[in-house]
């Protein structure tokens, strides 16, 4: 009899444990669902804010610059690299629509000439010249042509770049090409063009097309090495050697397979590092150019065009090339404020 009661107690205890376990599971599921709902709500709010901002910018693009804001004329020369398609093509289009003379460049002569022809047939003042930003001989030929035919340049938009990561798979087979093009290529053109930037009371302009993925202190995908991050963040001690050493170290780890434990971003890694270098170099150059006398000032900034629907993103973006080009054009033409060494997105400054 005693044994029977003990068995019944054990069964009751087991049933209670099962009930408690089911209750805990249901409570855990409710908490998980609440978390999912909060994340969904946050994403929806962010989407609404992006859409509202896009509408605002779309409206701003329809408002012409007034005569007193227009510091440029048809004699103002703007250069856009990698401009035969996508964001670069649209930057050329919008700058030309504002009445500037724009030089459209691309590696491939045939596609570049065709792109320029499309804009020329629309009555826009667009010139074409071949330019490969990683080829010293191409840069030399272009520089000589620019000096002889235009006498210099007023606006430089560094758009040329590559990206081989379109999805969740993180491919680093082309990391060296990505770094060489996006960072070293951009640096090549900046160094080649600075001596040719024409004096102006409004200042010459350099705009580097970059990415939020390259932010030093972004919440996601940032460098894990805190010491390195602080060194790159400190503009007073920042140097070209440090930036070069950072990307070189990354490429060395890619070659020996140790990059996954090196504290580098784990998604879109090579592209992120290349744009981190561009962003950091932009801040460095702003500091180096700040001592130029009035009339010879050069203002340099970088910006993120967003996830644009182009070949580079595998046509997976949610932003049009027209929207992606907008901030570059806005920075190139800023009429009433001096801004340099900053990072922008959707016409707003963003913390590096």
TrEMBL record:
Skewed-composition ranges (Basic and acidic residues): 1-18
GO MF annotation: an example: oxidoreductase activity, acting on the CH-OH group of donors, NAD or NADP as acceptor
Biased composition (Acidic residues): 19-28
PANTHER family referenced in this protein's UniProt entry, alphabetically: (+)-NEOMENTHOL DEHYDROGENASE (PTHR43490), SHORT-CHAIN DEHYDROGENASE_REDUCTASE (PTHR43490:SF99)
Keyword NADP: yes
Species this chain originates from: Actinidia chinensis var. chinensis
Pfam families, per database record: adh_short (PF00106)
Record key words, sorted: NADP, Oxidoreductase
Family: Belongs to the short-chain dehydrogenases/reductases (SDR) family.
Region (Disordered): 1-51
Protein name as catalogued: Carbonyl reductase
Database matches in InterPro entries: CBR1-like, NAD(P)-bd_dom_sf, Sc_DH/Rdtase_CS, SDR_fam
GO cellular component: membrane
